Amino acid sequence: MKQLTLTILLTYLFVSVYSQQHSQIQNVENRKTTSLNGEWKVILDQYETGYYNYRYEPTDQTLNSKTNNNAFFNDYKQQRPDELVEYDYDLSESLNVPGSWNSQDERYFYYEGTFWYRKKFDYNKSKDDNRVFVHFGATNYESHIYLNGNKLGTHVGGFTPHNYEITDYLKESGNSLVVKVDNKRKLEAVPTVNTDWFNYGGITRDVTLIETEETFIREYVIQLEKGSLNTVKGHIQLDGIKLKQSIQVNIPELSISQNFKTDIKGLALVDFKLKNAILWSPNNPKLYDVQIVVNDQILKEKIGFRSIETKGADILLNGKSVFLRGISIHEENGERGGGDRAYSRDDAFMILGRAKELNCNFVRLAHYPHNENMIRVAEELGIMVWEEIPVYWTIHWENKDTYENALNQLTNMIIRDRNRANVIIWSMANETPVSEPRTKFLINLIGETRRLDDTRLISAALEKHTISEEPLTMVVEDPFSENVDVLSFNEYVGWYDGLPEKCDRVNWEIKINKPVIISEFGGGAKFGFHGNKNERWTEEFQEDLYKRSVKMLNKIPSLRGMTPWILSDFRSPRRVHPVLQEGFNRKGVTSEKGEKKLAFYVLQEFYNQKEEEFDNK
Ligand code: GCU
């Protein structure tokens, strides 16, 4: 009993202390919102002259910041003919939001630096004591946010949501929302300077105004507790001044109506039983209408309930062993502007539709948190999800700011998506070089992940090692494999390591009793380039590599999933062959426009077999 009390106390303390630090608003789409998407005025500011004075001091922190006519965040308009003002949003060009600047104007394609965005809007609150927030789905990479010359805050991280209260700064008309977005890559950033994807800069996801009651439901967890098929455990966090409230959680379809009380910090721990619930699964992605009621406020969300666990080498979904028929995906719509960040439900349906055609029940959303539409649409389609933060390759492991940055991105991702039944794996990293500082960095991230969500599996895309050439034997030698729930690794036998025939000679030695996911394998092909299968870059070469790869990997007894690299060709500045790559990584089983290569059908056939095998177990 003492242990249980201690656990409850620790959970309560952590959630209540931690939740004050993160004012992230969850479930934006089901709130009272106004979209600020559309045309924004922009200023390309390569030398950040709108931010730094000539002594390189940030003008938003100098005493005269509000009267500084050349601080771009003031959106100042020349009043008198003799005035010196060296910018003018109204006379500047526009860009669409959401969208990167790279893909909207070829002059900006390779630009890495600062753009200023300005949106004018009017706003009338529906009730005087209501509150108003501005929410960004993502801005890549570092952004500073201002309303009517008042600094709201900054956000670091190119793929995570951030929101700011604007209640006290809002005017009924002529509000000026100014955003400085800087996508310069930095060694100490997350990711660092070297990545194999395109550095799209800008306001790349939705911008939304949210109006709430004075005291409102900011975030919550309503999910099955780990290991249970019928007990819901979680919490509800209010934000405002009247924090001690009675709260009701209703699931009408299950005749559930549960009452809870929040404490002086606005926190209520949630605990109730589900009776006769249909559990979420790929074959039946059941979502229930859940209502959280406080006074006259009803916040709704569709929530699925399922259990995900490992047992020895098995991954158990609702107690049944599953095989994750997956594919890796970058957040890119290859058909918009020749390639731009995906952000909408339509984009999600298009991309995930291709995964469904492959007969996937799983996707790895690489290498950063994708837009929320991807996760919600995947949940509706019955597709399980691996999410990850861009702790990728040579991160600066011993820099505390780098760790805080990674932790913030991890926290934003988990708070946003921890009510999504289809999210089953949080991944800490991708192909990170083994060292003591790196493993310590990652173990600390695991600790934070389990505090934020102890119900989902934890993994990371590790690397393989060849321990002998004769017989050809490969293993995964990484101390971090002790810390994860699922042993995942990338392998490129037949592309970077030898030729496809080498797959036929490999013996895999997996010494750890955990489920194995091959988080990447594959090779490149240019769509429509046909020839002998021995000729690299032909579709036939890639087809042969896939045939030999799935045969090789299927011999691993503890294989429980794979996410070959990758669904579609994607932009990468590292891929410069003028004929075969043209700035694209060509490892897709489809082209960037979704045109299927021969390898697509190899993978589809393999997944049809795996579905048969596991559904008949
Ligand atoms: C790596 C990396 C990917 C990259 C791929 C490749 O494994 O994780 O981000 O695109 O290999 O080389 O194509």
From TrEMBL:
Matching InterPro entries: Beta-gal/glucu_dom_sf, Galactose-bd-like_sf, GH, Glyco_hydro_2, Glyco_hydro_2_cat, Glyco_hydro_2_N, Ig-like_fold, Ig-like_GH2
Residues in Glycoside hydrolase family 2 immunoglobulin-like beta-sandwich domain copies: 223-306
Stored SUPFAM superfamilies: (Trans)glycosidases, beta-Galactosidase/glucuronidase domain, Galactose-binding domain-like
GO biological process, any: glucuronoside catabolic process
Protein name, as recorded: Beta-glucuronidase
Domain Glycoside hydrolase family 2 catalytic: 309-550
Keyword terms, alphabetized: Glycosidase, Hydrolase
Pfam families: Glyco_hydro_2, Glyco_hydro_2_C, Glyco_hydro_2_N
Thylakoid in keyword set: no
Origin species: Urechidicola croceus
E.C. designation(s): 3.2.1.31
Enzyme class (EC, first level): hydrolase
Entry's family note: Belongs to the glycosyl hydrolase 2 family.
Lineage: Bacteria, Pseudomonadati, Bacteroidota, Flavobacteriia, Flavobacteriales
GO molecular function, one term: beta-glucuronidase activity
Record-annotated Glycosyl hydrolases family 2 sugar binding domain positions: 35-211
